TrEMBL record:
Species lineage: Bacteria, Pseudomonadati, Pseudomonadota, Alphaproteobacteria, Hyphomicrobiales
One Gene Ontology CC term in the entry: ATP-binding cassette (ABC) transporter complex
Coiled-coil residue windows: none
Broad class of the protein's primary localization: periplasm
CDD domains: PBP2_NikA_DppA_OppA_like
Name assigned to this protein: ABC transporter substrate-binding protein
Amino acid sequence: MAGTVEAADLKGGRLRVAILADMTNFDPQQFSTVNFPLIKNLYDSLVEYAPDGKVVPSLASAWKIAPDNKSVTLTLRKDVKFHGGTPFNAQAVAATLKKAADPQKGKNVYATMSFIKDWNVVDDSTITLNFTGPAPERQITDLLQFLCVIDPAGIDTVETKPAGTGAYMLGERVVGQRIRLVANPNYWREKEPIANEVIFTIFSEDAAATAALESGATDIIYGGTSRSAVRLKDSGYQVIQGPGPLVQVFRINSTRGPFRNEKFRQAFNYLMDRKGILKVGYAGLGEVVALPWAPASPAFDAAYNEKYAFNIDKGKELLAASGLSPADMSNWKLLVNGSDESTVAISQVVQGSLGKAGVKIELDLQQGAEFIDALLKGRFDAVFGAVGNVQKFPTRVATNSIYRTSNNPILGTPHPHPEYVAAIERVNTTFGPGADVKGAYDNLNRVLVETAFAIPTNSYDVGLIVAAKNVGGFTLDIDNLFVARTVGFKP
């Protein structure tokens, strides 16, 4: 059981969870933070990671990487059924891979499929994935962990109707209000799930969710703010921080306006008051970063934090070197998620810092679905948005829209920064005895700050869990997704 942090004789019942935003859809390949409460409850991955990064079996009971690293053969569990009653098998894995490999249907998983050439179904419980060339072991297991298997019969309707093997099934959804999950009576993990029912109630404000927890109307807040978590911890509530933080990134549409100018973009490496952003937006919970890696990533390099520390004067030098006029430099808007208090606060910090450098901008506040649509389709000049998978194999960063190397919804095709695409490919192909792995990481880091189409500011805890004292059995997911199957009530 990967990541279970508490072994106790827990009781079942109705688990009440407060969340701060409604989900996008039921497709597990739509890896948006608003879907994090549901993905690992409705679906299972082929493998999982323990909090320490060790790979553990899930739907795949075993896997064998070929000696030349050009393929992996999976042995699948034989005792699993989808919620609809059909058996889980290699054909279902193949159907899920086909969806993931489609640039339109694969969504956030599509980029991770870039090294997959094809696959062969050997029999009902065996499938081989073939690669375009030798692949690092961690790149292979990252894909297997990222891939939640979907019932082939439900692939075409998965956005509106879940089709997984998970510990819970959909009981009810009232858009904008609540989502009710009921225990899967045929779940394959023994003695799980513990809770008979999980009810996610959607609160429009963090303060309302906090009040519900303090009054006993809810048992858990998932995905609340760092500031509230700090206050509630001081009041005696449990605060659970997982191993999978996000990195907040100032995303730049380098195909628009002044951002076409490389020197102008590079100036933003110095114009981010990262310490101020971390304090104002996240109550200091997290780390300042100038690269898109959590500190646990093998590509993390703390030296960049000092080299690109907040420095208005250095930023001004690059602004001057851009040759742009003050009017040109200010001819853009910063898109802001008006529904998120932290994002509004950090955007105001940046607006103030830029003003000191002579760049006067407006904040374009948009709400809910309107903001998400603009974010995912690249209809912005610049915007703050979190990126995930930053604690795993470095090229997993390319699963995030702004960092995609192909079919990038913001920067387009072909990618306007081919040196970045080449740097990602170098990391993917540098492994084995005698390989200059560090050199590949160093090259990628250099390219990231020079191309400057995305400026990281800090890591922070997505999926913070704040819980009442009588709740236990939390499983720490490597991506900080909420896992309800092991959670129950203390005697």
